[in-house]
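subagent[fold] <- orchestrator: predict structure for attached chain, return tokens only, no commentary.
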Amino acid sequence: MATLTDLTIAGLRDGLRARKFSAVEVADAYIGAMAKNRHLNAFIVETPDLAREQAKVADARLAKGEGRDLEGVPLGIKDLFCTKGVQTTAGSNILKGFVPPYESTVTANLFAAGATMLGKLNLDEFAMGSANITSAFGHVKNPWTRKDGKDLVPGGSSGGSAAAVAARIVAGATGTDTGGSIRQPASFVGIAGLKPTYGRCSRWGIVAFASSLDQAGPMARDVRDTAILLKAMAGHDPKDSTSVPRPVPDYEKALTGDVKGLRFGIPKEYRVDGMPAEIEKLWQQGIEWLKAAGAIPVEISLPHTKYALPTYYIIAPAEASSNLARYDGVRYGLRVPGNSLDEMYENTRAQGFGAEVRRRILIGTYVLSAGYYDAYYLKAQKVRTLIFNDFREAWKQCDVVLTPTAPSAAFAIGDKQDDPIAMYLNDVFTVPVNLAGLPGLSVPAGLSADGLPLGLQLIGKPFDEETLLRVGGVVETAANFTARPGV
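subagent[fold] -> orchestrator:
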């Protein structure tokens, strides 16, 4: 029997406006779902009282016919977004107990559109990870299960957001994507996830990992819902120097279903060694779906793809080492006393940061150090430009690019925990998009032999999320992905 938590954001919006149910009823339904699914560990902080208060305000507005785009829609917020008066930890002990006195621009935009907040969602510590196993608050479980019964990772770093959306604990969620942290978890749990163009959504009030790569985006059950959320999240913000002053389209109107004559690129370099046959088969199926809808496949070359991962794992740790220098135990967060200022710094950072964060800080500090800056960091920035130029050449031949989202389905918790290189390879298809600052969308498209979700990725031109969503809607319709975890 269908319940309120089975409705999409579009369904909730339309039902609330028609007064078929109240925002308080919707909030209560999701609060109940949240309580039943605590075993997933998707939330770091639950805010049921706040959600009910916001729902009452939403009902008052709806009663007057003043409902906004997201009026009364309950969302989960990744715990990387600062939320005024609600603890924000970035999944780290070093920020445990930190309660921001201000609101991030993205969450402020969502609340201004009428959304309610169910709580703060778990994530890899400081967004560093591909499996949501590095959080100081415990790992998140994927709501999907494999035939052997092992608990699976939900992907990362936005694993809490992905798990919560897939398990119907929230109607939608915010994520951030630095190297695939929205798209890869979306693929692992069978939902839609959109990484917008760099600069489309403000980074102000989001705890920084790698400033030139981080981008906020929506995670939801289908492409239409991501379009609705992106419209509310996006917009120019003078507080963020990287925010681009461009008008925000009504992305939902882009979902016309018409892709006749559109050219979609198939990059030959994405056929990587060792890619499972079922991933290759799904990719080919995606090509056939778009051809059947009237789109035209074009083989393209992105020759510098093979350098994307090493380039990313120089630039991202370098920027992280600079950004995380501010966590020193002096102004906020954890402080571990010492006999001197230097010892206090050492004690605080040693106890406050987890192993993966310490690893990336060490790598970043090394590549920025005297004697290595030119050899590593400067060279990586030059290669990044070449990767961007590859895409710029590709756009002369096609309108979007179609690839797999991830090289595998979700794996078991602990499977790759002791092998950082194997973990980093999860981002092989997603990282180039961040390095080039492009928009990317993951759409659930099929099931693996183990009955687990697999996603297809679409890559778009800068600030052309509309075409990305239009094509994504066509892939989604053709795939007809109706499978649900535990069903």
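orchestrator: received. Logging for downstream: The longest strand covers residues 440-447. The chain has a mean pLDDT of 95.
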